[in-house]
Design brief:
The chain is mainly α and 117 residues long. It has a domain of 48 residues. 60% of the residues lie in helices and 3% in strands. A hairpin with a 6-residue loop joins strand 1 and strand 2. The chain binds zinc ion (ZN) (2 copies). The site of one zinc ion has 7 residues, from helix 7.
Length: 117
């Protein structure tokens, strides 16, 4: 009666089943939101609430490729922390900027080296 267990066909079925189960478990695990973004944690311009966001694997992959961690986006966040969205002065050249977007355009044209990485 136990002979059936050694049947290569049965063994193959068992192997396939356990492999499928492993893949399923790995896929399920990848969906679990248990990852935070290290770049967010290390970036002083990122608000606390954003540092505490939990991602699953695919979401984190997407997030790290977003513009959010570009040099421009980081400089813009730093400007907004210092001046708000509106008027402010460029720290490097004492130029008055009308808004955070204006500041970024100014950095692009006057301090392009700050964006080159
Ligand atoms: Zn991040
Ligand atoms: Zn400037």
């Amino acid at each position: 009666m136990r002979q059936g267990m050694k049947d290569p066909k049965v063994m193959e079925e068992v192997r396939k089943f356990s492999e499928e189960l492993k893949i399923e478990q790995a896929e399920e695990f990848a969906k679990v939101r248990n990852l935070t973004c290290l770049q967010c944690k290390l970036d002083g311009t990122v608000p606390y609430t954003k540092k505490e966001v939990y991602y699953n694997r695919a979401e984190l992959d997407g997030h790290v490729k977003e513009d959010y961690h570009s040099r421009k986006a980081q400089l813009k966040r730093a400007y907004v922390i210092d001046h708000g969205e509106g008027k402010g002065t460029c720290t490097l050249g004492a130029r008055e900027c009308a808004s955070s977007d204006d500041f970024i355009s100014h950095v692009e044209s006057a301090h392009g080296e700050q964006l080159a990485i």
